[in-house]
Amino acid sequence: MEENTLNTNPTDNNKKAKGIGRRDVLKSLVTLPFAGALLYGAFRKRQLEQYKHSKLLSTLSLDSTSEVPAYIPKRDNDEKLLRIGIIGTGGRGLYLMRAMGYIQPKWIDEWTESALDNKQDTRLEIYKQQQDLNVSINGICDVFSVHLEAALEASANLYRTGTNGKRSAPAKVYKNYKELIASDDIDAVVIATPDHWHAPMIIEAARAGKHIYAEKPLSLTVEETFEIEKALRENNVVFQLGHQNRQIESHHKAIEVIKKNILGKITLVETYTNRNSAWGAWVYDIHPDANPRNIDWKEFLGPAPYHPFSAERFFRWRCWWDYSTGLTGDLFTHEYDVINQILNIGIPHSAAASGGIYFWKDGREVPDVLNVSYEYPNMEMNLIYSATLANEQHRKKSFFGHDGYMELDNDLVVYADRESTRYREAITDGIIPLEKPMITHIPGRGIDAISSPTEQYFAQRGLLYTFRGGQQVDTAYLHVKEWLDAIRFGTPVSCGVKESVEEAISAHMGTVSYREGKKVFWDEDKKQIVTG
Amino acid sequence: MQNNSNYSRKQLILLTALRVAIGWHLMYEGIVKIFQPEWSSYGYLMDSKGWFSEFFQDMASNPSVLNVIDFLNMWGLTLVGFTMIAGVFTKIAKIGAIIMLLFYFVAHPPLMMADYIFPGEGSYLWVNKNLIELLAVAVLFVFPTGHIIGIDRLIRNYRNK
Question: Quick check: is B3 in a domain?
């Protein structure tokens, strides 16, 4: 090596000619062209990618700048105060009160503590940012005194403070729902009771001219579905059914995908429920203090057949046909309403269900495994619902079209189909990739959005829509707000009477088919479910 | 630090080639990020595992800190990469590169039980390409070439004039 060693000391090189020689300049700048080459390559690559991207957008007729507009316009707060009554203050009733700004102080304590331990926990921050809906909880009623106490506490928490915080005037406790509905200082009611009570309460409230937000499912039977519809239409009150999925960002993106016909002709939609826990199978805790003295059992039963007091039936009512329709009413309705929101499928022509009680052999009547096939011949499409309460593998809603396949959840991905007619050329040209999604929507670069670290991974692999407002918002809050806005300003609700009737009938067709062990059909003229 | 280097021709060519190649890699990583307006280090930071994961996740959760980090990544990589290619201010550039690579390494250390969402293109245990690149830059730091092949040569001559 010795003889090969160069004298690379620049000062030595320049001993003869003081100053900077040509050789120095050359050696100084010899690597610069690499930077030039890199810049050229980077810009060229970018140009090619942009070309492919714009070709993809034009093939899909998507505009890269298109954004779903904010769903609910922001209003000033100088609007009229709405006085709300809550019927049923169990878990769901309390949740809806919370969405309206009335939270149990213990939740504030818990969130505050949790946020101190875990900086990722932004529940308190998000809740405090939630716009005031300008409502007061004027009345509450429930058949279990423990539920009432919790709601009473929440109703006095106008200032959203923890246990030692400032309180406002609490709501009035009503003996029963009829008195609450009849009260002059209630403008609108929230109904969050077991399903067998929905119809009588909605009808009573509608006749009293009170606006109604009711939990899903709409009804327990076909007959009462149309009684509800009649009462709501005759009395012209604002009605919203509690399918808050209507507010989910990705569903709005899915509607856009369908409108642009990106999937081509859709012949099959599949939707699922997978749960694998006692809670998921409706085996809720029985409150240790519950007894016939603090539960008004007669009032709980109401229109249901007589049964002696049973704490099990009271807390786990979803397991019995008398109070619930199990999977169809509780969980299929969620799925169905999303599909109806996106495809506007309406009431099916027929339904064929099968299933059984295969896992939760705890004396329940409703099945824990259920498959229903719904036919929509006018749309040339089938909807399959497949559910088990004994496995938790999450399956996303799947839309199968001739040109593409869409998987929907809180996020959305669309893949082109290998045999697509529409995209054949673009697939051959490499504009549309088959192995990765051609459209991807990950909710927001805001707070929740973010909950997915895969965001960037997806962003690099598809079209990333931006999140509305960039902020995580509780969908129940948005859904309630939409209802309140409809009362105040006459704006539309997204899950009104028509959608609710469609939801109820679809669910009942599944229930009847399962219980009778037969394929059933919808008779639109008679407004009845018929067999054979 | 030695200033009057006596390298063989092969040594000089390979050391310079290594410097330019690493510079190229870092600069392109920076440019790609600048080209993507939606790019953010959020995912990478949130996916952090190991000793400092909480630190990186905290940085990601704070939007203003995240903005600064994103900015530093985009422009820091581009600038450091360019200076390494051009051989200008190479000492500072290499320190910058080492700091950045150290952050990338400790944010995603290839630990035995660490399982990352971001797909890696190879198989690593304790040592990964970030660490190797970091060590390569460290080698370049002690075997500098910018003052021989690079703009640093002009600067040095100008100063010595």
Answer: no
Which CATH architecture is the domain A55-66+248-471+497-531 placed in? 2-Layer Sandwich (3.30)
Residue B4 is assigned to a structural domain of this protein: no
pLDDT at A465 over 60: no
Residue B121 counted as domain residue: yes
Question: Could you give the angle at the alpha carbon of A197 between the alpha carbons of A196 and A203, nearest 5°?
Answer: 125
Fold match flag (A55-66+248-471+497-531 vs A82-245): no
- Residue A84's H or E segment, with its range, is strand A82-87
Could you give phi then psi for residue A189, rounded to 5 degrees? Answer: -125, 150
Q: Each residue of A20-56: pLDDT tens digit?
A: 788 889 999 999 999 999 999 999 999 988 888 788 8
| Beta bridge partner(s), residue A384 | A270, A373
Asked if the Cβ–Cβ distance from A450 to B42 is below 8 Å, we say yes
Domain range list for chain A: 55-66+248-471+497-531, 82-245
- Is the pLDDT at B91 greater than 60? The verdict is yes
Confidence of residue A375 (pLDDT cuts 50, 70, 90): very high
Q: Which residues of A touch B156 (CB under 8 A)?
A: 10-11
Q: Which residues touch B153 (CB under 8 Å, ≥6 apart)?
A: A10, A24, A27, A28, B87, B146, B147
Q: What's the complex ipTM?
A: 0.91
Residue of chain A nearest B61, judged by CA positions: A120
pLDDT, residue A456, reads: 39
- 3-state DSSP of A218-234: CCCCHHHHHHHHHHHHH
**Structural domains in chain B (count):** 1
Lowest-confidence segment of A40-49, A243-252, A375-384, B110-119 by average pLDDT = B110-119
pLDDT exceeds cutoff 50 at A467: no
B93 to chain A, any CB pair closer than 8 A? The answer is no
Distance of residue B141 Cα from the nearest chain A Cα, in angstroms = 17
Domain span at residue B75 reads 9-160
Report the length, in residues, of chain A: 532
Residue B141 lies in a domain: yes
Closest-CA residue of chain B to A460: B39
B153 to chain A, any CB pair closer than 8 A? The answer is: yes
Q: What are phi and psi of B8, to 5 degrees?
A: -70, 165
Q: What is the pLDDT of residues A473-502, one digit of tens each?
A: 778 888 999 999 999 999 999 999 999 999
Chain B residue numbers with beta carbons less than 8 Å from the beta carbon of A10 are 147-148, 153, 156-157
**pLDDT, mean of residues A305-323:** 98
For chain B, positions 54-83, list CB contacts with chain A under 8 A. 57-58, 61, 82
Average pLDDT for residues B34-61, to the nearest whole number? 84
Contacts of residue A285, defined as CB under 8 A and 6 or more positions apart, other chains included, come to A315
Closest residue on chain B to A7 (Cα): B6
Chain B residue numbers with beta carbons less than 8 Å from the beta carbon of A11 are: 4, 156-157, 160
- H-helix segments, B3-150: 9-35, 42-46, 53-61, 63-86, 90-107, 129-142
CATH class of A82-245: alpha beta
* 3-state secondary structure string across A14-79: CCCCCCCCHHHHHHHHCCHHHHHHHHHHHHHHHHHHHHHHHHHHHHCCCCCCCCCCCCCCCCCCCC
